[in-house]
Design brief:
The complex is a heterodimer. Chain A is α+β, with helices and mostly antiparallel strands. Chain A is built from seven helices and ten strands. By secondary structure, chain B is of the alpha/beta class. The chains are: A alpha+beta, B alpha/beta. Chains A and B meet through helix 1 of A and helix 1, helix 2, strand 3, helix 3 and helix 8 of B.
């Protein structure tokens, strides 16, 4: 069964946290959500943003690359799994390596926890819970071709962090004409607005 | 596809399994076969009534699975996801409670016999002494059609009281009256699946993103195909944030905006003359009424720039099909009916009503808000939208019920009027079902004093709501999935709710409780129902020939064709998803254009009350929060109310975000947290209303209501906000255009809904 991918469109997100409620329903982590919805700045706007694992393809899974006990698996379809509970030592390397802030450490359980694209569902042809329930389909599950036929917005899978660029399995939906999500560029812009010096560009560190 | 984590000891490399097979680890397939069954049903919350599967294992509801139903396509909002957690909730009421030792006593467990006998003996004594109208039925719309139907019949046949009304009075009464007046039929004229056909969507007073999340996906489907979105709301809601145009109007001023938009359409040749000529009446008067509403005039009233009003008029009037969606924002008003009529006028002038994807769409709020108002639990109605003061309607229902038409009581007081009658001592006892008056009614100090005067106050509920806490007798009922029956969603689609669990403890199904009470009142022969299906079959006969005709709807047909839209007069009739395509429901087939002037809200800012206070919802809570405040995930997201105010106002008053402040109106004051944010008009305050006791914003709201349908003005009243240190009480009064007692026809009531004499003559709706 082909596993498709997620498209995250923050412009549609209404901050209802239906994805969180549904994620918590999974029997493998009942009561805990692996997806996070945050207000960008409630003091300025009602804008919200869901964060899921982006399932990095190139460089492949930085979290897995730095895992000292090889607990994080990548399936042949490219789905980056949560750290295997029998191996994870909660060292937090993955937390530091992830460019998107996805893996979380459950301090009490001494385990890393993160989204695994509902592998139990998606490998059986179902949608992941978050995209299954999302009322506005801000989280949308399917293929790129299908997406570009059905939806507005430009699906982008490249995110720039200064000199480092990451290509991910999961897409962000950006305004038309935006070739990639340039996080460092946006940061530099914001700092210029505040009259501060832009951060120095660094060499790419993961290849 | 490359991979990492290849262990150099092959046998230690558990990644191997994945590399080899690409299949999920063993165990997952087996987990899916672990004795769980899926019960197809629908969500218990809002009017969308999303399809869902409940996961049942060993008699317990353990979870939810998606159900690909035509109107939600497997999607669910957070309320829907956790709805199942009400089953087996530790706070569920499991046995009847009686307040022993009078009003000062405490609620203590009792047997069913003790509780029901107490209620019935008291009712008999009251009715013998003070007449049948001394006992009232206050029902609700978040329950199945069968229960709603039975609540009305119970009031009229078992109690023989004229005071039967329900909480839909606070919800759909103004939109319902407007649709009846304009179209001759009170139902959303098109299904949700039509929405993507619209080229422009105008959302009036509805925070659809939070109140109807699943409806939002249909709006997006239209937008994906290039439709424009205009949102009229004093707050920049999640829907307004990305809309093509946002008009932050002052709460309560929508008629001026809509009339100005219609005037623009007339002046720029955007009226569908042929449609207006052939399918409507009343154009000349309407045209004359909107003439003075220049964009500048509307700007002065609504507080949005004239340019934006023109832009909205152009965007709306140049698109076809164009759809107006409206909800409580314009309906919770002392001129709620007028607001809806102004919207309808605009759509009719553009020739939109009846077009696929065009026209107006009222967004019914409660789970069964549509069905609940058709089933004869309304002050002036009998099942099928029949009128209780029309002889032929009375005769038709009396025949189905097997009673003498003369025995049927006349029209009674509206829900909002009942409070006045309780305070005046005219209503001495009331049975409340599926309603939480202490949270949902305006100016709740009056409600508290009214409920305290009742002896007994009988409440049927499944949690101890703020109203049940004040009851003399509490009867434990069931949540939606412990019973079966039908509901009618906001499209007019009749759907089937299936049972997934048994009632907990001694709790009983609400219809069983009513039947038992009727039997003890000596009226058992009219309530010999053995199942919800028996009630549905009688309901079909009772609505046959009425406007909301369910005669041809069967449970099997609902399953076979994914819901049936009424009217459905016979079993071979497929139902009516789209209405008014060729004719309207008035005898001449034409829609009525009703010219509406601008009337100010009952109370406007002035004196020491410079703000307009508006109330509304959050996505995590449903109505009075009795259910959702008990579901941990939902309550964690919004555990208490807050007040939203604009940074400009906050700066003037020295209020910081997160600070506790006092919000005050002429009626009362409350302390809440302040959320300082530019997503609201600088002259407006917003507080969500789902909370009880000290946290209820309905301590502050105005009980003035629409003179016709008695819907209260929740959406605007004059208020002030102050830092907690302030002790001085405001002296100068706000502008008071009228209040509850000053409204024409309010108290004493004449009939439930006032009508002009000529409407009384024709009574086609």
């Amino acid at each position: 069964m082909a596993i498709h991918t997620l498209f995250v469109d923050p412009s549609r997100c209404i901050g209802c946290r239906s994805c969180e409620a549904a994620c918590r329903e999974c029997d493998s982590h009942k009561g805990e959500s692996m997806i996070m919805v945050d207000f960008v700045d409630r003091g300025a706007s009602v804008a919200t943003q869901p964060t899921v694992c982006m399932h990095c393809e190139d460089p492949i899974a930085p979290c897995a690359q730095v895992c000292p006990v090889m607990a994080i698996l990548v399936t042949p379809e490219g789905v980056v799994q949560q750290a295997d509970t029998s191996r994870c030592i909660a060292c937090q390397n993955c937390v530091y390596a992830c460019p998107f802030g996805v893996p979380k450490i459950d301090v009490a359980a001494k385990l890393m926890k993160k989204c695994n694209l509902c592998y139990d569902r998606t490998s059986r042809g179902l949608k992941p819970w978050c995209a299954q329930v999302c009322p506005t389909q801000a989280l949308w599950y399917g293929d790129y071709e299908e997406f570009s036929l059905a939806r507005r917005g430009h699906a982008v899978r490249r995110t720039g962090f200064g000199a480092q660029e990451v290509r991910t399995r999961v897409f962000h939906v950006l305004p038309d004409g935006t070739a990639r999500l340039d996080v460092a560029g946006l940061l530099a812009e914001a700092q210029q607005d505040l009259g501060r010096a832009a951060p120095a560009r660094r060499e790419a560190w993961v290849l | 596809m490359g991979t990492v984590n290849k262990d150099f000891f092959e046998r230690r490399d558990f990644n191997r399994d994945f590399q080899r097979g690409g299949a999920p680890a063993p165990g997952w397939e087996e987990a899916a076969k672990s004795g769980e069954t899926l019960v197809p049903t629908h969500c218990c919350f809002c009017g969308v009534q999303c399809g869902m599967h409940l996961k049942v294992k060993g008699g317990a509801v353990v979870g939810v699975e998606p159900r690909d139903y035509p109107h939600n396509l497997g999607n669910l909002c957070p309320k829907g996801v956790v709805a199942y957690q009400q089953v087996g909730h530790p706070e569920r009421l499991r046995q009847p409670l009686i307040r022993r030792g009078g009003k000062g006593g405490s609620l203590e467990p009792a047997t069913w016999d003790e509780a029901l006998d107490l209620v019935v003996s008291r009712w008999k004594a009251l009715q013998a002494e003070h007449g049948p109208d001394s006992v009232a039925v206050y029902s609700g719309s978040s329950m199945t059609n069968e229960k709603c139907y039975l609540a009305g019949k119970f009031g009229r046949v078992a109690l023989r009281t004229r005071h039967v009304d329900y909480n839909g009075r606070l919800c759909m009464s103004s939109a319902g009256a407007a649709y009846s007046k304009a179209f001759g039929l009170d139902r959303c004229p098109l299904p949700m699946t039509d929405i993507p056909l619209a080229r422009c969507i105008l959302v009036l007073g509805s925070n659809i993103a939070e109140c109807f999340p699943i409806l939002t996906s249909w709006v997006w489907r239209a937008r994906d195909q290039g439709a424009k979105l205009i949102v009229v709301d004093p707050r920049e809601t999640a829907s307004a944030r990305t809309a093509d145009l946002w008009l932050p109007v002052k709460p309560g001023t929508d008629v001026a905006l809509l009339n100005a938009m219609l005037r623009w359409a007339i002046q720029h040749g955007r009226v569908d003359e042929r449609y207006v000529h052939e399918r409507t009446v009343g154009w000349d008067e309407l045209r004359a009424t909107v003439e003075p509403f220049t964009p500048e005039h509307a700007e002065r009233i609504c507080g949005v720039p004239a340019e934006r009003i023109v832009a909205a008029a152009r965007m709306y009037a140049e698109a076809s099909p164009s759809l107006i969606m409206h909800a409580r924002g314009i309906e919770h008003s002392t001129h709620g009916v007028n607001n809806c009529l102004a919207a309808i006028n605009l759509a009719l002038a553009r020739g939109q009503v009846g077009l696929p994807g065009g026209g107006t769409m009222m967004i019914t709020g409660q789970g069964n808000g549509q069905g609940g108002r058709e089933m004869g639990q309304k002050a002036n109605q009998l099942p099928g939208y029949r009128h209780i003061d029309r002889d032929d309607d009375r005769a038709a229902i009396a025949k189905v019920w097997g009673v003498d038409p003369a025995e049927l009581p006349g029209p009674g007081a509206a829900a909002t009027e009942m409070i006045g009658l309780m305070n005046a001592g005219e209503i001495k006892s009331c049975i409340v079902m599926c309603s939480n008056l202490m949270v949902s009614l305006p100016d709740n100090r009056q409600v508290a004093s009214a409920l305290a005067k009742l002896d007994p106050l009988v409440v049927v509920d499944f949690f101890l709501s703020e109203t049940a806490e004040r009851a003399d007798v509490v009867l434990p009922g069931t949540v939606w999935c412990e019973d079966e029956g039908t509901t009618t969603n906001l499209e007019g689609r009749v759907i089937k709710i299936n049972q997934a669990a048994e009632p907990p403890g001694e709790a009983r199904r609400d219809w069983e409780i009513l039947c038992d009470l009727a039997a003890r009142l000596g009226r058992g022969e009219w309530f010999a129902f053995r199942s919800a299906r028996d009630i549905f079959d009688e309901l079909r006969r009772a609505t046959a020939g009425g406007i909301a005709d369910y005669a041809g709807i069967t449970w099997e047909k609902i399953d076979a064709q994914d819901g049936v839209f009424w009217p459905c007069p016979s079993e071979n009739h497929p139902g009516s998803p789209r209405l008014f395509t060729e004719r309207f429901n008035h005898p001449d087939g034409r829609a009525r254009l009703v010219a509406v002037p601008y009337l100010p809200p009952a109370e406007e800012p002035g004196g020491d009350y410079p703000f307009r206070l508006t109330t509304g919802r959050v996505v995590y809570h449903y109505l009075s929060g009795t259910q959702t405040r008990r579901l941990a995930f939902l309550n964690d997201q919004a555990p208490e109310p807050w007040v939203e105010l604009h940074p400009a106002a906050a700066e003037r008053l020295g209020i910081a975000s997160g600070e506790r402040v006092r919000v005050r109106t002429r009626r009362s004051s409350m302390e809440v947290k302040a959320l300082v944010t530019p997503t609201i008009r600088p002259d407006t305050l917003f507080v969500p209303f789902h909370y009880g006791n000290k946290q209820a914003v309905n301590q502050l709201t105005n009980s003035a209501s629409d003179p016709g349908v008695k819907i209260p003005e929740f959406k605007t009243c004059a208020a002030t906000i102050e830092r907690l240190g302030t002790t001085e009480a405001p002296a100068a009064e706000p502008v008071r255009n009228f209040d509850a007692r000053g409204t024409p026809e309010m108290f004493p009531y004449s009939t439930g809904e006032g009508r002009s004499p000529d409407e009384d003559e024709s009574k086609t709706y």
